[in-house]
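Minutes, project check-in
Item: structure for the 300-residue chain
Input as provided by the requester:
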Amino acid sequence: MKSKVLVVEDNRNDLELLTQKLKNEPYELFIAETGEKAFDVLEEQGIDLVILDMLLPDIDGFEICRRIRKNEKHAHVPVLFHTAACTIDEKLIGLEMGASDFLNKAADERELLLRIRNLLHAKKAIDSLIKYPVMDALTNVYNKMYFQHRIEDEIKRSTRYKREFCCAIVDIDHFRQINDRLGYVTGDRILKKLAEMIDGNIRSADILCRYGGDKFGWLLPETKLDDSYLAVERLRHFVVTSEFGSKDEEISLTVSGGVSSFRNAEGGAKEIFYQAGAALKKAKSEGRNQTRVYKGEKEV
């Protein structure tokens, strides 16, 4: 997977030179010419490194760095100041604001690439340390705590940008019977395989978690209710046609799904998840192996 690098630079010539130097590296580049645009990109993408000019038309680089460090979600993202000139005093200010490194724009290309690699390597090491408290140990997808945090983030983003997003709950049908009949070891293996299957069939922007037991939460940012319903239905059909057993046993599964939508800042995290749960309950009560959506007072 490519590392995501955000370049914050308003000088077109400097930007072109920098992108040329990075074009053969395994990075996905994002460009922002202003500080405000940089914050938008940080909110929307999982950025691994920020390359930051000191002088920008709206917010100076020091203030951008300070705000990044104050944000819990981005606090561990390395910031490389890439400037035309930098005095000792400016470096001290930058370090106080949380800068990770400094490099003159005239520096050798090899030094630039090496510094970037070192910063990304350090970021990867930090990610591996903080990964586990938000990951489910069995399925290696996000856990309930992280999912609840991300719902709050999506509500803020949806409110700010007037965008719709959806929440889905996917639940294995008759999973207790599977555990009783085949044992918990087999049940755990099925959960792991289902998590891998769902995770492999959702968009990179989507968020999947194991919410508890055999229940999976699925966030679909910037997705309308009808499209989210179709996404859950595609997954459901895929599960029905898949084999979950080993070479010595055949196990077929079905799942039920419930989908809700956050619109116009109505309700909060508990509300949207409750609505998805109500839609799931409707799917279960009407025979399972189906998806229902929550629309107003009733699930359809």
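Outcome recorded: Residues 3-134 form a domain with the Rossmann fold fold (CATH 3.40.50.2300).
No further action items on this chain.
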